[in-house]
Description:
By secondary structure, the chain is mainly α. The protein has nine helices and no strands. It has two domains: 1-31, no CATH class; 33-241, no CATH class. The radius of gyration is 26 Å and the shape is elongated.
Amino acid sequence: MDFVTLAGLVIAFSAVFLANWLGGGEAILLLNLPSAIIVIAGSIGATLIQSSIQEAYRALSILKWSLFPPVYDLDAARALLNNLAHKARRLSLLSLESDIEAIRNPFSSRALQMAIDGTDPDLLMDRLHDDAVRIHEKRMRSVSFLESIGGYAPTLGIMGSVLGLIQAMANLDSPEALGHGIAVAFVSTLYGQGFANLIIFPIVKKLTGHIDKELLYHQLLIDGICGIAVGKHPYRLELELNAYE
C-alpha cells in the first residue's frame, strides 16, 4: 500500500478543518450530504455522458493504483535480461523456452515467445513498440476519465451553491436560518474545489507517473529482448540497458 497517498489525503483535509477551526467556524458546517451528492455524483454523471461504461470501468480499475501501485523494478528486469542474454549466447535462443513460464509479466512473456518463435527482429521491435504504445494510450484514456471528473467538480460545486442560496432565500423572514443557509450553500463550492484539487487531480498526477514508469519498463524489455533476438553481446546489452533509470 502507498502510505504516502494516505498521508497526503489526511494532511490536506486536516489543513482544511484546522483552518476552519482556527477561524472560529463550526466543523459541522463543513459536513453537508446534499453538497457531496451534487458534486461527486454530478461530476461522475457528467463524465459518463461524454464517455462509456467501459471507460468508466477501466478508470475504476486503474484508480486502485493510487493506493496499491504496480511495481516496475528496472534493476530486476535488467538482471533477468542479462541472465537470458548469457544463456542464449551460451546455448541458443530456443533454450529460453523454459524461462517463459517463470516470467510473470504478460508483456515480457509474450515478447520472449515471439523472439523464440523466430520473429524478424525489425518486425518484433515494431510490434512490441506498438503494443507498448497501445497499452500506454489505453491507460491514459482511463486517466482522462478521472481528470474530467475533476474538471466538472468545481462547476457542480457552484451549481450546488446556487441551489443552496435559492433555498436560503426562502427563509428571508428568519435571519438566523438565512445566515445558516447561506453558510451551508457555500459548502458546495468548497466541496467542488476540494474534491478536484485535493483528491482527483493529485491522484491523476500520481497515476500518470505510474503509467509513464510502465512505458519505460516496457521499453526496457523491448530493447533487451530484441537485443537477445539479434544475438547482441550480453555485456554490450547490459551497458545499453543501464541507460534506463
